[in-house]
Amino acid sequence: MPTDIYLVGLGPGSLDRLSTATLDVLLDPAHGVVARTMSHPAACELAAQRLVVTCDDLYDAGQDFDVVYSSIAERVIAAAKQGPTVYAVPGSIGVGERAARLVHDAAVEQGLSVQTFPGESFLDLAYLAVGVDPIIDGMQVLDGRSLSDVPNLTIPTIVTQVDRPEVADHVTGLLAKVLDDDFAIVVLDALGNANERVETISLSALPEAELTPLTSVFVPASVVGLRGLIAVNGTLRDQCPWDQKQTHRSLVRHLVEETYETVEALERLSVDAPGGEIDWVAYSHVEEELGDVLLQVVFHATLASEVGAFTMDQIAEGIRRKLVHRHPHVFGDVKADDADTVIRNWEALKADEKGRESLMDDIPVALPALARAEKMQRRARSVGFDYHDIVGAIGDVQAELAEFIGASAQDQESELGDVLFAVVNLARHISVDAESALRGAIDRFQRRFRWMEITARDGHRSLGEMSMDEMNDLWRAAKNQV
Length: 482
Hints:
Layout: E1 5-9, H1 20-27, E2 32-35, H2 41-49, E3 53-54, H3 56-61, H4 65-80, E4 85-89, H5 98-109, E5 114-117, H6 122-130, E6 140-143, E7 157-160, H7 165-175, E8 184-189, E9 197-202, E10 215-219, H8 225-239, H9 241-245, H10 252-266, H11 280-306, H12 312-325, H13 328-331, H14 339-354, H15 369-381, H16 390-405, H17 412-429, H18 434-458, H19 468-481
Parallel strand pairs: 1-4, 1-5, 2-3, 2-4, 6-7
Antiparallel strand pairs: 7-10, 8-9, 8-10
């Protein structure tokens, strides 16, 4: 049965690296040949011996790679309908060749027969050049053009298609978030060719390195990022006397302390953050404090993994699944047009998961009182038990305050609690965290009182020597000044 399309990998270098069977297909005069690009030594050698149609014009005209790859597939399919056609690509047809996959799928759909000659991948040569076995050592291969975040660098990494200065800049910027400027990387270029280049340079030198369409970068494994943190914590658990002594219970106070320090750092950001003007100094503090909290999470995961309870990956997967399950309006077919509907759905799903008999179940008693009050109120709101607007919330504060004023001495504590509970409700109605609001008031009081003390000393007096009227005058001045 004749073949309509031959998918051929040209390997990493010249034609002399190809098998006899592959050369027979390429040089058969009965076959038309379409090459993805002429920026490859084997393609150029082939074009010197016979007619080759290139797709470089499609790259020049295409707005994005999706358009280019689709156009290539259309060209190859059209040629195959006129007679047997070879589609030749650099390297292997199975490595980084989206257009080859499109050609194959389109051919099957249209009833055209396909035969494949995969070809030698540059990766085979890259593994040898850097001394890494992808099975023994592990390996990840990434596309430099589409790299969007810092990858897991605790395994050896090859970043391909670092073929332009802007790609090199982008890759360097991402890697520099976790690697030092002088970290040694290896530039791999034109492997399998007479002019192949294997050069070790520093990460910071990559943007200035010589680049070609055949350039890739090898990044040796490094204990960095989240995986690095987990590994370092495990090492400390094995070798550090202090870490070896810790238990889940002994670490609780550290988790609480680090959480409060993180809250304090977050409150240094503007209320609109991440909107508005970026405060880089404040964000640096947030980054540091979040790291301290993350260490506590990792530490507890390390302890739990020792008894086979769970790992850090299981923690992440558990919360990922929970998020998907509790957002059916995003990941399912439930409709939710406003935040209140989302909250109601969330609480209903959560109640079902936890087998709650009451919305008031499983609210931690250890929460700070203001936070516990706010959580209870949000639960009640999820079924509509709440004031419709701020007017009702203000009226409730006024009513509870009136009850406090009229209360007997023995009832004042409970009535004062009702006032505070109503104030938390008011804060929630204006989207303010009551705990943060109170901390802000405390900070303002502290700054203003310090100003009063300093002002009094400047007048050679102390606050203790002043009358209440004098101190009230100072306080009003402090409110204007601070």
